[in-house]
Amino acid sequence: MPEEFDFAELRKYLRGQIDMGDSEVFLDEPWTLVKRAAPAPSRPAINTAPSVPASAQFSPVTNNPAANVSFAATGAPAAINTSATSAPSASASLAGESPAASLFAPTGGLAAPAARPVVKKTASAFESAESLDAFYAAIKSDVVYANVGDLALYEGPANPKVLLLLPAPPAQGGPFFATPAGEMLVRLFGSLSIPAESIGVTFFYKGRTARNIPALLEATLKKMLAKELSFIAPSVMVTFGEPLFHQVFGKGKNFEEHAGTDMEFSGVKTCSLVDAYAMSQDKQLKWVTWKVHIPKSSYFKA
After folding, report:
1. Exposed, middle or buried by CB within 10 Å (0-12, 13-18, 19+), for 182?
2. pTM: predicted TM-score of the whole model, two decimal places
3. In b/e form, how buried is each residue of 4-35, taking b as 16+ CB within 10 angstroms?
């Protein structure tokens, strides 16, 4: 008896394709069939200085204790008691105490170790910024961005529902949401009932020219990201790409195991997906994202 197959889903897909017209369908995006003729929703003006509720205000002392740590020694060790009364008496030895206790008893004063010099760590200027504009002004003068020039700053509304975190700005320049990757992600999250006007984007490294980032500077960029998040205050942050995943969460976590799962960074719900620029050119990565990674997260529901 020949094996029977259920082609209901294929029939539904083909019927939709016929109704919409082949030239109007994104055939390589699994999350939706979108008419090309449909105008994209207008995006609101970029506001780089959103008002921040009192509960989200950043305090360098309480929210970033690492910046205020002093590595000073607490003081010289307590002096050793070398008085004669501390040595065991002869009668004690005769009573059964080990002779070695008398042999190694201190007989003279020992000089206390010299106190270690106090080393104070100077906080970076961006750590005391009180607004997003002040934060951006401060990082432009930081050693991380010395001689870098123009920086790619946050694009999007205040308190976005989703903040996209990319490793770096698009190579071709211009607004991210005007790039193929940006347009693709707007459609993807639109299929998750998140409109374009509720999506923002920022970059881990904001320089528009590519460079290799030493591990020491990565730690500073991570602190900058935490500070920036305190002003943007997104509901969920989504990172893109395995290298960025390790920069944010460390080398000890496995990207394949954690991609799409519920995570957290600096008090913000976070989810990691594959590289957005690569995904825009690769149908298989789109399918993995939609069918495997996003279903793992409780932050999004298709």
Report:
1. buried
2. 0.64
3. eeeeeeeeeeeeeeeeeeeeebeeebbbeeee
* Cα→Cα distances 25→15, 260, 280, 283, Å: 12, 27, 16, 14
Residue with tokens 């002003």, as numbered in its chain: 231
Q: What is the pLDDT of residues 179-217, one digit of tens each?
A: 999 999 999 999 999 999 999 999 999 998 766 777 778
Structure tokens at 179: 């790039």
The amino acid that residue 228 corresponds to is: E
HSE toward the beta carbon, residue 83, CA cutoff 13 A: 4
What are the start-end ranges of the H helices in the chain? 8-20, 90-94, 99-103, 132-140, 180-190, 215-232, 242-249, 255-258, 276-279, 283-288
| CA–CA separation, 41 and 38 (whole Å) | 9
Tokens coding 43: 């995006």
Q: Are strands 263-265 and 199-203 parallel, antiparallel or unpaired?
A: unpaired
d(CA 64, CA 188): 34
Instruction: Kindly report each contact of residues 275-279 with a partner whose C-beta sits within 8 Å and lies 24 or more positions away, as own/partner.
Output: 275/167, 275/240, 275/241, 275/242, 276/164, 276/166, 276/181, 276/184, 276/185, 276/240, 276/241, 277/166, 277/170, 277/181, 278/241, 279/181, 279/184, 279/240
Residue pLDDT, tens place only, 75-122: 444 444 444 444 444 444 434 444 444 434 444 555 555 666 544 556
Kindly give, in sequence order, each residue whose CB lies less than 8 Å from that of residue 149, ignoring residues fewer than 6 positions away.
207, 208, 209
